[in-house]
Write a structure and sequence with these properties.
This protein has three helices and five strands. The chain has 142 residues and is an alpha+beta fold. It has a single domain (2-132), classed as Histidine kinase-like ATPase, C-terminal domain (Heat Shock Protein 90), CATH 3.30.565.10.
Length: 142
């Protein structure tokens, strides 16, 4: 599913509605649907709020597809270069007063997914997030 998004915060509702339809069509469990919507909300909001400081209208693409046990989310924008993976993870063990502002959203995205990758190709930011639909049981050697 390909979604064209305008850099307007009201587009978040459209993204969530389309994600819900995608998940229903692909029998994605409700827990994973909520994870996917949280991921989408975070990454799309970041592009809308920060990728286009010129204040003009822009459009970018979001692709959501199912591949085996995975949902692959791919966001492509031609905004200013920004690699969300270069920042260090926030110290979530410290109190809220002691924490630095920022970085929590991408930290949550990384926690809810298996793979997060960023590249800048032909003047475009490309962020790919891979989410397992069903968590695999871990073998503890027993």
């Amino acid at each position: 599913m390909l979604i064209k998004i305008k850099n307007n915060i009201e587009e978040i509702n459209k993204v969530c509605d389309k994600a819900k339809k995608f998940c229903e069509k692909n029998d994605i469990p409700e827990k994973k649907y909520h994870d996917i919507v949280l991921i989408l909300d975070e990454i799309v909001t970041n592009v809308i709020n920060y990728a286009y400081p010129d204040g003009n209208d822009h459009e970018f693409n979001l692709e959501i597809k199912k591949s085996g046990n995975y949902i692959i989310i791919r966001l492509v924008d031609n905004g200013i270069p920004f690699d969300p993976l270069i920042s260090t993870d926030p110290d979530v063990s410290s109190s809220l007063k002691e924490r630095k502002v920022g970085g929590l959203g991408i930290f949550i995205v990384k926690q809810l997914s298996e793979i997060v990758e960023y590249s800048r190709i032909n003047g475009k930011n490309q962020l790919s997030v891979t989410v397992a639909i069903y968590n695999k049981e871990k073998n503890h050697g027993n």
